[in-house]
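Q: Hi! First time doing this. I have a protein sequence and I read that you can turn it into a structure. Is that right? Here it is:
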Amino acid sequence: MIKVLFFAQIRDQLGVSELEVPSAENNDLTTLLSNLKLRDNNYLSVLSKSTLMVAVNQTMCSHNTALSSGDEVAFFPPVTGG
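A: Yes, that's right. Below is the predicted 3D structure, encoded as structure tokens:
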């Protein structure tokens, strides 16, 4: 299984903070994103934003990152400091 976390506005918009998905069906981040977007129109809208940031095992990554069972994937909006 892969643990998927949603933070800040993404969590609020989806109404869920985390879920688990089968690793066999989500072998890379691009596939995971595609499968999540198929859940419903809300997931499609929220996860299609170009500003979406993602980390795998607490490391920022690109969408072609390979995933394995036990990985943690976090989606969050861009953050700014001040």
